[in-house]
């Protein structure tokens, strides 16, 4: 049976490379959260590797950039099937995200193919695939066009019990696991093919598997052992008791028809009407979502605004309460102050100001505490800062709020709270960035809070995928997380990544519950994306080696006499 199956797979490699590419796209899509099976990730690249092997074996006959051309349809299909929902908020943004990210992936595959050719088929060429792919994922976490949504390590977000060891590696451990797993399985197929050829020559019976401790057995163990180790971690993990009490509000304000037109008293009234029945003297935090306040508040005199005054009234009844809420704020720069690249000029004066997506902490301390979102959504909150691209600001996607590049904080802030532990906010898109998220914990956060507004995408996989990534952040940092989403999904997530009191989508809701604080720092929190940095440097060395080998070969050919 196994022999027949493997022979069938090997026959697939004779299919046109574009069809093999599309097959990879389908498999990777079927593996993706929130309803896919992540085990498919370990064979997702197999058809592409078979296609690349064909191109390599026939490299004298193939055209330039053949690996890019043939891999692009598969990556395009994967991006399209998993992130099509972006179109609900912006067609242009969806098209750019899908087309460009597919292109970046194809460039990586072309670079791997080219490196393998220049290194004469050395096994080191396959190390280039891992290194270049991880370098792309790392780039997606650290540049203005950031789009880490499809980083391979995210593929286990709904099967998070498989990857409890992310507390040591972060999601790049998952990416390394997936890519190396694909290569080990590919090598097992190659071994089978070699033995099959020998069998035909010698007219002998094929034995499968040839040896438990060779490539087939290694592939099985490579996938199974990390899962078993993770399940052991999950079963043995115990939280220490450091209770913090939360009330989390999901007001369900339609971002398209209500959020930017409702009067501030009505918005605050809706939030407090949900929260009031749940609040008591033991409540430490009241959490409301991103962009809940749309009063155009100026930070130069923030306490004077009506929304802030209405929320402060709750502190009269509950003086130990800490209220965290999202809002749009602005700051007028002093005359003559240095202008950051996101500064905007007033239309009726020579002065400048900065717009922010902010998280505001209100308690009985003397002043309000602000954190400004710092991982901004490309095309909506930030546009490329590359020299000569400033003109793109006028084409920023308008979702109803402040349009164009927003200001950012350079420090991951931890709030000073009243009668509870230090906590920090991550705003919306920031919850996808593992190392960034871990910086709050390094700075002293014993609890994490995510505020978001996922109503832009409608009831699609988008908001469910976004919620699922929260499991991974909890595991990486071993921090409990309170999540408030305007239209859902809101929940309380413990340090193992388990979600409690999960709300339904597009309905008003309120959660009251307790999470444990933690002051232990995981290996990942202390060291961040060290795997990405190692393989990015490795990729640079391999690329330079391939270039050097190519130049050496070219010069040696020129120096030969005719």
Number of strands: 13
Largest sheet: 8 strands, mixed
Number of domains: 2
In oligomeric terms, what are we looking at?
single chain
How many whole angstroms does the radius of gyration measure?
26 Å
Give, in order, the helices and strands: HHHHHHHHHHEHEEHEEEEEHEHEEEEHH
- Overall geometric form: globular
User: What is the percentage of strand-forming residues?
Assistant: 5-15%
Summarize the structure.
By secondary structure, the chain is α/β, with parallel strands linked by helices. It has helices at residues 2-12, 17-31, 41-44, 46-57, 66-83, 91-118, 124-140, 166-169, 171-202, 215-236, 264-275, 306-317, 434-442, 461-477, 523-527, 530-559, and strands spanning 243-250, 285-287, 293-298, 322-332, 344-345, 352-362, 369-372, 423-427, 447-452, 481-485, 491-493, 499-500, 509-516.
SSE map:
Blueprint: H1 2-12, H2 17-31, H3 41-44, H4 46-57, H5 66-83, H6 91-118, H7 124-140, H8 166-169, H9 171-202, H10 215-236, E1 243-250, H11 264-275, E2 285-287, E3 293-298, H12 306-317, E4 322-332, E5 344-345, E6 352-362, E7 369-372, E8 423-427, H13 434-442, E9 447-452, H14 461-477, E10 481-485, E11 491-493, E12 499-500, E13 509-516, H15 523-527, H16 530-559
Parallel strand pairs: 1-2, 2-4, 3-4, 8-9, 9-10
Antiparallel strand pairs: 1-13, 4-6, 5-6, 6-7, 10-11, 11-12
Helix pairs in contact: 2-4, 2-5, 4-5, 5-6, 6-7, 6-16, 7-9, 7-16, 9-10, 11-12, 13-14
Descriptive report:
This protein has 562 residues and is α/β, with parallel strands linked by helices. The protein has two domains: 2-237 and 530-543, no CATH class; 243-332 and 358-382 and 406-517, Nitrilase/N-carbamoyl-D-aminoacid amidohydrolase (4-Layer Sandwich), CATH 3.60.110.10. It has 16 helices and 13 strands. The protein has helices at 2-12, 17-31, 41-44, 46-57, 66-83, 91-118, 124-140, 166-169, 171-202, 215-236, 264-275, 306-317, 434-442, 461-477, 523-527, 530-559; strands spanning 243-250, 285-287, 293-298, 322-332, 344-345, 352-362, 369-372, 423-427, 447-452, 481-485, 491-493, 499-500, 509-516. The strands form two sheets. Strands 1, 2, 3, 4, 5, 6, 7 and 13 form an eight-stranded mixed beta sheet that branches. A five-stranded mixed beta sheet has the order 8-9-10-11-12, with helices on one face. The longest helix is centred in the first third of the chain and has 32 residues, at 171-202. It is globular and about 90 Å long. The chain starts with a helix and ends with a helix. Residues 391-401 have low confidence and may be disordered.
